[in-house]
Amino acid sequence: MKKLAVLCMALLLIVSTMAGCNSKPAEGDASTVILQEGYTLQSIIDKMNEEIGIQMPMTVDDAVLEDIFHVNPDDIEEYYGIFGGSMTSADNAVAVKAKEGKADAVAESLNQRLEDVRASFEQYLPDQGEKAKKGQVIQKGDYVFLVIIGQDYDTFDSDMEKAQGFINEAFGS
User: Which residues, if any, are the signal sequence (predicted)?
Assistant: First the structure.
């Protein structure tokens, strides 16, 4: 039993370490990363909500983006996001197109939100805490996404993979 617990903790450590990694292109490639025709930031986030679901979805507005997601409005061109409107949900799905040269600052802000969500569920609602641990900030050039999504403890990994697939599809990668 002790070996199983140690193995589970090691696996959790590996997964959480990988979840914190950003996907981003080499220096100087940010301007060449563009959304495929027919995709918008809203269409990507809406697809996540439709296919995976967000508990009691609320739309991110300017005040929420700045106050809760820590994003400086001067650093962005556009955004769209929804988050769980219940205190019992860790769900967050936000897409931001940063101004040129500001993607790292936006990623840092969204990573702060990710850490805030992780901390808020660390000792409260273990399933939502586990979902938050699997959350990711994903960077594609000037586009930055925060994704904490999943319907069930058993599907958190596959739901996150599906969400990342929606993002990759939108960029043709």
Answer: 1-19
